[in-house]
Every structure is written in C-alpha cells, then in structure tokens.
Design goal:
It comes from Streptomyces laculatispora. Helices cover 76% and strands 3% of the residues. It contains four helices and two strands, in the order αββααα. α1 packs antiparallel against α2 and α3 packs antiparallel against α4.
C-alpha cells in the first residue's frame, strides 16, 4: 500500500482527535462558567477568569506537543484551532448583538497563529534532537 494515503489518513486522524480533545477541554475549563460578574462600581467582566483560560491553554499544550513530536504537524497545527473555533461558536452563538462572530474570528486566527508557531518549534526541536541522537 502506498505511503501517501496512510500519511493523509494519519494527519486527518490527528486533526480529529485534537478537535475532540479541544472540545472536551473547552467544556471542562470554560463551558460551565456562563455568568458575567458585575462589580460594585457597575463594571462587568467575564464570563471567564484568567485562570480558566490559562488552564485551557496548558491542557491543550500536551496533545499539541505529543502530535507535533510525532511529525503530525498539520494535525497539530489545525486540530486545536478548529476545535476552539467550533467551541467558541457554539458557546457564544446565543449573543443577541451579533458581535460574537468577531470573538470567534479572533479565536480562530489567534489560535491558528499560536498553535502553528508552537508546532513548528516543537517539530524543529524534536528533529534536531533526533538527528543529534543518530549522530552519537
């Protein structure tokens, strides 16, 4: 069997697994907090706290590292942004102002950039470490 179709299937499976893991992580870290906090001065924040977003990012770093270090770079770079975009759209789509799409777009672009850079760094460090190990 040719190597090319197997590589494509592996990349698609990596994307699918990362999308599912990202949706689960969003639900665990952000899905339960839906209320905005109203402070005594009348200002409104939320619904998420900084620690929730940091927890989500750190949770997603592990599967991105695992995927990128096994040379499924396309899967690592696309799985998390797709999952975050779908989760944000689903979670925020009940916003009556319609501005939720701006936030969803920012999530999509920002996560694509950050995940792409992280994947490139992880893959290059892993490749360099593998080539150094082979020379020894």
């Amino acid at each position: 069997m040719p190597q090319r179709p197997l590589k494509l299937v592996s990349q698609l499976m990596a994307i699918l697994v990362l999308v599912v893991l990202t949706l689960a992580a969003w639900a665990a870290w952000l899905g339960w907090d839906q209320k905005r906090d109203v402070h005594p001065d009348g200002s409104v924040t939320g619904p998420y706290e900084a620690w929730q977003v940091i927890g989500l990012v750190l949770t997603l770093l592990a599967p991105v590292y695992w995927t990128a270090s096994r040379r499924y770079t396309v899967g690592a770079a696309l799985g998390v942004p797709v999952g975050l975009t779908v989760a944000a759209y689903y979670d925020w789509s009940d916003d009556s102002s319609g501005l939720f799409m701006v936030g969803v777009g920012m999530i999509m672009v920002g996560s694509l950039i950050v995940t792409g850079v992280a994947t490139a760094v992880i893959a290059s460090v892993k490749t360099r470490a593998d080539s150094t190990r082979q020379r020894s």
